[in-house]
Write a structure and sequence with these properties.
Length: 397
């Protein structure tokens, strides 16, 4: 089923004629905003220069009124067939990062995930630390290594300390993992839209480096996002009541606009051997954005509560989204319980963590009363460092 009906209209950036154009996904095609602005189709709604930029940042700066006007105009235009030159085939398009991402923050807002990692990393203490239910915990990540869907992920090198060894060793991570997350992109004053995020994580490097200051090189080597930004306006029909928060949050986090979102999520895995044999990717997890304890609006309120400036084009990821059932965990460290319960793949392979050649695809979609709004895919394939040194392409298509 198609992800991009007229009720969706997510924004992205793609290559055309040696340039990067902004576009809107509609059905199997992309409507070229650059070309449409040149044809003066948005006069009175939005300055053409904003739509002829190669990233969404100038549009993000405009704020809700312009976003709403643009969406209304697009819905009117795309209800009819426009001239052929204004479209490109979505399947053939080479997508680029839609936003010049300024700051990148990663939260830790799923209670099931935080408790599972507490049990795994600190087996002899309370799963949740005392601050967790009082504020959305997070850290600042590395925006410079955020990459688009389809970009290969090089297995990171790092320092790790095997439990039986007296000194650490340096080399390729042997516990490479995924994290299924949703990220929001900020505009002027408010959240513009959402993307899928895979926060690739090297668990062996993380376990050795994370105390006392938190994750650093175990997560900064690559973070993949989906190419289409699904707007908050499109997601309005899928707002749902958030889960009960107890204790009641402090005043600055008790904000009226605190809805959760009903967004279905899945993780697919295909090994190199499966690909060679024509075996389709297997779904290893299914969960939902409603599993987040802290809402996006609370995360944003917390991030700016100390007076820090939030800029249009910042990315805030939710943290791994895990449900309560083991089939709904959003990372391999939870799905395999740190490798003690390997996953069985079609053809007899087993997985504790990611092997070279494994390809992971995150998907997200909202569905109700016959209406489906999708996010597209958030995909990455693991390659060893020596293969990259040999000069292979950084992209899979
Ligand atoms: Ca994360």
């Amino acid at each position: 089923m198609n992800d991009f009906p007229i009720e969706n209209l997510p924004y992205g950036a793609f290559e055309r004629d040696g340039d990067v154009h902004l576009g809107v996904a509609i059905g199997e095609r992309i409507f070229d905003l650059h070309a449409a602005a040149r044809a003066r189709l948005f006069d009175g709604v939005c300055d053409p220069g904003v739509l002829q930029a190669s990233v969404l940042n100038p549009l993000l700066e405009k704020g809700r009124e312009v976003w709403h006007g643009l969406r209304s105009r697009l819905q009117a235009l795309l209800s009819d067939e426009q001239e052929a030159g204004l479209y490109v085939d979505g399947g053939d398009a080479s997508m680029r990062l839609p936003v010049a991402i300024g700051d990148y923050v990663d939260f830790y807002s799923s209670e099931n995930h935080a408790a599972n990692l507490g049990r795994i990393f600190r087996p002899n203490s309370e799963p949740l630390l005392p601050n967790w239910k009082w504020m959305p915990i997070g850290y600042h990540g590395r925006s410079g290594t955020i990459v688009i869907d389809g970009t290969r992920v090089v297995r990171p090198n790092g320092q790790r300390k095997p439990s039986e060894a007296s000194t650490p060793v340096f080399g390729p991570s042997t516990m490479l993992d995924i994290e299924l997350e949703i990220g929001f992109i900020t505009g002027a004053q408010s959240i513009f839209g959402l993307v899928l995020v895979n926060d690739w994580s090297a668990r062996d490097i993380q376990a050795w480096e994370y105390q006392p200051l938190g994750p650093f090189l175990s997560k900064s080597f690559a973070t993949t996002i989906s190419p289409w930004v699904v707007t908050m306006e499109a997601l309005q029909p899928f707002r749902i009541a958030p889960s009960q928060q107890a204790p009641s949050p402090l005043d600055y986090l008790r904000i009226p606009d605190d809805a959760s979102y009903d967004i279905k999520l899945s993780v697919e895995l295909q090994s190199a051997r499966m690909r060679e044999r024509g075996v389709a990717p297997v779904t290893i997890s299914r969960t939902n954005a409603r599993e987040l304890y802290w809402t996006f609006e609370q995360q944003l309120a917390h991030a700016r509560s100390n007076g820090a400036t939030i800029r249009p084009g910042d990315l805030f990821a939710s943290g791994t989204i895990s449900g309560s059932d083991p089939s709904s965990y959003g990372s391999l460290i939870e799905l395999t319980w740190r490798g003690t319960k390997p996953l069985a793949l079609p053809g007899g392979e087993r997985r504790e963590f990611l092997e070279d050649g494994d390809e992971v695809t995150l998907r997200g979609w909202c569905e109700r009363d016959g209406l489906r709004l999708g996010f597209g895919s958030c995909r990455g394939r693991i390659v060893p460092r020596d293969q990259v040194a040999a000069g292979t392409s950084s992209h899979d298509r």
